[in-house]
Each structure stands twice: as structure tokens, then as C-alpha cells.
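User: I'm designing a mutation panel for ABC transporter permease and want to avoid disrupting the core. Could you give me a predicted structure to guide residue selection? Please restate the sequence first so the numbering is unambiguous.

Assistant: Good idea. Sequence first, for numbering, then the predicted C-alpha cells:
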Amino acid sequence: MLLPLAWWTIRSRKASFAGSFVTMLCALALTTCCAVLLDAGAGASPAQGGAEVVSFAVPFGFVCLCVMAFAVAGTFSLSVQQRTREIALLRAVAATPGQVRRLIAHEVLVLTAVAAVPGCALGVLLADGLRAWLAARDMIPASFPFAFGPVSVVAAVLICWVTAEAAVWSSGRRASRVRAVQALGEAAVPRRRVGAARTCLGLVILASGVWGLVAIGSSDGPGAANTAVSMVMVLMAAVGLLSPWVGKLAGSVFGALCRALFPAVGLLVKANLGAGYRRLGAAAGPLSLTVAFAAVALLVPQLKWDEQWHQERQRLVADEVVRGDGAGLPVAAARTAAAVPGAGAAVGATGTFVNVLGDGGGDGDGGGDGDGQGDDAALGPGGMAQAVTDGPLDAVLDLGITHGSMRHPGPRDIALSADLAQRAHVGVGDTVTLSMEDDRTEKARVAAVYTRSRGFGEAVLPLRLAARHLDGEQPLLDEVYIRAAPGAQRQLADGLRALHRAEPSWRLLDHAAYRAEALRARDASMTATYLLLLVVTAFTSISVVNTLVMTTMERSGEFALLRLVGATPGQVARMMRLENAVVVITALLVGAAVAGAVLAVFSRALTGSAVPHLPAGTVALVLGGAGLLALGTGIVTTRIALRQSPTAALRGAG
């Protein structure tokens, strides 16, 4: 009985459900894309790039799911609010609260079913396009099998449906609980009180977001970067729940300001903002999410890169760096480079991974066999490390050592970054147990603690120590750092050119070439981030447009009444421009506040300063783009609403 009624409601109110349909269509496309990629990646072998696809799809899907929940909640809630009079009439003709809630749930089900086929088809096409894009940039092998089952598609539809049902539950519950006479009154005059449960939940989530920011501030830079976007989602969820209070505060402040600056039109603006504070909060929500997410997604990697390159410039004191075109350089390359005429020092390095085990973390024998097995329960902090060949390390790299020395390290002497040493609660002179790449352990002595670890590694250890854990494979060097003897820079350059002619696969990099390669590596690593930002920003932009169109078109009857009592279309348009400006300013302030809090805490964890260096161009692009999108949408929608004659608009509103 209720399912046909839900279908009839959607067909008879296409304009009211159009925004919800578009949002659900985009949500299904993004969710299906992530589900299909996860399914295909899980079924592919490591050689086919399955692990790379899964590692890309998991964070991509998490962010898309959070943004989708926010957008769907906003548009579906607005759709329910716009039909308050219709729901009130149903209550007046003896519909029970349960029937009203089930009707709204059936409407969501019908809308999800209608959007499922085109949304899932778009999602599959998007997933195939992403697969081809990743393969074209050598991020996954071209042989990656794009094979998935129906379960992933069905799961995507179920996720979107459940999310939408949860989004409208609060609005449907409130609409069904009021008495029929009260409901008819609320249809004419919006309810003034904000629900206590919603407010309490919003405050709890806000408190958890603040706690998360405190945790970011006490973590290391990479860990802070991984949780920065998550904190944006948590804080924006709190903003969404507290949006009526945001709208009430913004309406009071900006309404009074408009009344003072524009006495005639400002009076109407102040009255509208005071009565429609829920509409103001709902309209500002998606736009503030766009601003906050875009700012953090763009600026966090930029801050990381700036700090990493700042430390790299201080760390690299070698005159030349040698790299290989293939898998790497042989260990003998360090000795060969050291023998080049004019070379004062040459040290090779290769990347590895270590963990500092806690008490009882292993029984490494300390004699070099390293056959003890690490205990997962005692696995301590760790990270990327650099295994270096014998030689004067401080002659080619200035690690910013604060305690100890690596001038003449012993066979079991290591250096730890200040962050790793703090997390492992060790210092210079302590003996630690390291879990190596093959999960076997080694005893080592902390000989130094250094500060310039960004983009380099959390530990430095002898290559001979790390080579014991390669299962018989010969170690390969990532690069060799070469420092010229005093006054022998030209002689070194000539000798290295001769070496390059003898070994064409060995690439010689001076400081400028080294930076150019670092920039190319940064751009390659940022490609996936920019893609995620593009997709999510497009989705949130659609949500912004939907919300603004819905909140403007529902006021066609109000515009008609104003024109019938003597207001000109120009005066109504000016009133709406002021209201749209208030929406934009509120959204920009909220989004900037959320992004600013996250960026300040992240900057403090990364650099020690809570004042991040923000590129003016990027900030202007985020704020200006979001503002122009919202203002343009509001102006165009108002013009469309004013094209109708007042009498026709009143008939449509009724």
C-alpha cells in the first residue's frame, strides 16, 4: 500500500525529488566504483597489481563514503522538510506516525531503485577509466584484470540505501511525532526549537573531533597527514548536526548587519534569516564541506613537501648523487665512486624498514645471525630506514644530529630520528632490538639521534646489518652520495663524466637535477590525491548546486507574495543576492575554521609551528571557486523562479 503511494509522491513532485535523485545517482556511481575496484584488486595477484589497487581504493572509498553520507543526508532531509504541509495533511486524515515514517522510508527505497541502474553503470565505467588511468601512469601493471562479481555492485547499492535511510530517519521521526494540528502549523511557520538529541550528538562528535586534533598534535608528521582528512570529516559531521545553531548564529549576526547596511531590503533579509535559520544552515553545509575538504586535501601535501624539501636542502651536503636507471646500483658502486679522482667521500644508501621492539620483542642473539622471531604483541614503533655503506656519513649528509655521533659507527651502531627515539623511549647508548624486513631480529646500539628525517628515514643502520635479512639476495643501492675533496670539484666532475661513459646506466645528479627529480616524484605521488580531490569536489559541488536550487525554488510562493504586495522583481533579486551572500560567507567561515584548525595542528606536528605557510594562490582558488559557484547558482536559480507570474507561482506552491 505504501510503496505505490511513495511512487506516486515522487512522480507528482519531480522538482522536489530531483536534487535527491542526482545526489543518489552520484553516490551510487562513486560507491560502485570503489566497490568494483576493491573486488577486482582483491582477486588479482600481487604481480598484477592487486595490492596497489586495494591500497588506492580503500582510502578513496572511505572519503567518498563520508562525503556521500553528508551530501545524501542534506538533500534528503531538505526534501522531507519541503513536504511538511503534505505530511501534515496525511496526519490530519488519520495517518499514524509509523505510517508516515514508513512512507518516507519507501520513498528513499524507490529513489534508490530508480537511480541504481544508471548509477551503477556510471560507477563501472568510472572504475574502468580509473584502471586505465592508473595503468597509463605505471601505478599498476597493464595486465591488471578488471574482473568483479555482482556482489560488489549489490553491496554498493545497499550501502547507499542504508545511508540514505539513516539520513532521513531524523527528519521523518520529527515529522511523524507532532500532532496533526501542530504539523499544519509547522507547515506554515517553521519550528523554532532545535532537537536536544541532535544537539547532544553534534556536541559529542565535535568533542571527539577536538580530541582527534589533540592526538594529531602529539603524533609524528606522516601519522598526522594520514588522519588529517579523517578529522575534517568528523568535524564536518558535527557541523552538519549543529547546522541549525550555525544558521541561527549566522542569521542573527549577518541579519543585523544587512539591516544596518541596507535598510529597505535588509529588513526582509533579517526577517528571512531569522525565520529560516534551518534553511541557512542546510544550505551552508555542503559548501563548507567543499571548502574544508579541498583546502586540507590540497594544502596538507604541500606543507609536507615544503618541510621535506627544507630538510632535504639542509641534509644534502654531497656535491653529486649517483642513481641507477634500473633496479638499483651494486654495492661496489660506492667503492667505485670513492675511487674517482677528486672524490673525498662516497657513501651508498638503500631503503629498508625496521621496527623497534618492546621488552620481550625478540631474542636476537646479538652475534649477527639474527634468527630470533619478533613477537607481534611487542612490536613497537618503526618506519622507513636507510641502510648505508661504510664511510664518513657526516661528510655527505648532515642529519642534524643532536645527540651522539655517526662519524665512526661500529658494525651494530645505528641512528634514530628524534621522533622514533621518543616513541620508542630510547636514547644514545641504549641497546635496542630491531625487527628487520624478514621479521627476524637484531640487537643494535643507538649511537646518535637526528632531526632531519623527512623524506629520508626514521633510522640509519649499517648495510652489512641489513644485508643479513635479504634471504640470500644481493643488496642493491638506491643512490650513492659523493663529496668532493677540498678544491677538487672540477676534478670530481670530470671523473664522474668518465665514470658515466663507462657505466651509462648510472645517472649523475647535481643539486639542481636532484631537486628536479624530487619534484617529478612529488607530482607522481600527488596524482592520486589530485584525482581524489577532483572526484570528491565534483560530487560536493553537485550537492551544493542541488541544495541551493532546492532551497531557492521552494520559496517561489514567497517570492510571488512579495511581488503581489508591491515588491519589484529587482527588489526580490537583491534580497536573494544578500541572502546568498550570507550563505556563502557563513559557509566559507565554517569551512575555513575547520580547515584552519586541522592545518594548524598538522603544521605544529610537522614543523613545530602552529602557523602554516599557505600558498595565497591555492587559498584564493579554494575560497574563490566555492564562493563563485554558490553565488552563481543562487543568482541563476532566483532568476528562473522570478520568471513565473505571481499567480502561477502561488498555484504551484499550493
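For picking mutation sites, this is relevant: Confidence is low (pLDDT under 50) at residues 360-371. The first helix runs from residue 2 to 12.
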